[in-house]
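Lab meeting, item 3. Inverse folding demo.
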């Protein structure tokens, strides 16, 4: 991992597919050095990584074809802070329900997620979520063919639920995941929360 603690954190955004540009924009606006990541040799000097929304089965195939899936697994296991949104959350899940045949994930988050959990009638919707960790103002959450978290392991904290109790944001040590897309709303609090994790990990690993 690169740089000193005063330098801007170098945060990659997995740019194989999906809405990686929006994440690069938000991270840059918060003062991070945000870089697109496609190749295995682009991982080593990262302080953190965002996995964007898109289509998890395609992202899975491309990540294996580009030879970056195994290095990412190793980096996650070694403690690299990673934030996954929507398809990115699916990529971080240990278990996926309603996956396509042969679909794999990077894993690391002890959760099971169900893909496309809201069915055809409610493909996409927006709602307000109370998330005390991010302050008193609710988070306006945009769901697009979103997954839900169906079960969480002991190591996983729930950050947000829908009104019906279904889990849509989780955190576990170095990993953060949301079923929705903060990168499209102009509310940067989730990215700020993630950058705090990146900062804490840099401080810890150099302490
Ligand atoms: N439905 C997509 C999947 O299964 C996720 C959609 C999204 O990232 N907005 O990967």
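The presenter then showed the designed sequence:
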């Amino acid at each position: 991992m690169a740089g000193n603690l005063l330098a801007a954190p170098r945060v990659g955004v997995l740019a194989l597919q999906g809405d990686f540009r929006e994440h690069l924009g938000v991270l840059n606006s918060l003062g991070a050095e945000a870089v697109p990541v496609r190749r295995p040799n682009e991982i080593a000097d990262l302080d953190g990584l965002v996995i964007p929304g898109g289509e998890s089965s395609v992202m899975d195939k491309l990540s294996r074809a580009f030879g970056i899936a195994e290095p990412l697994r190793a980096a996650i296991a070694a403690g690299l802070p990673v934030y996954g949104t929507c398809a990115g959350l699916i990529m971080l899940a240990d278990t996926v329900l309603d996956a396509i045949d042969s679909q794999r994930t990077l894993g690391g988050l002890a959760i099971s997620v169900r893909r496309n959990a809201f069915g055809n009638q409610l493909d996409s919707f927006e709602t307000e979520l109370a998330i005390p960790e991010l302050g008193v103002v609710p988070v306006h959450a945009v769901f697009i063919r979103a997954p839900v978290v169906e079960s969480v392991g002991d190591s996983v904290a729930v950050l947000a639920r829908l009104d019906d109790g279904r889990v849509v944001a989780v955190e576990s040590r170095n990993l953060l995941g949301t079923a929705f897309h903060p990168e499209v709303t102009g509310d940067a609090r989730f990215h700020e929360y993630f950058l705090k994790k990146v900062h804490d990990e840099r401080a810890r690993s150099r302490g």
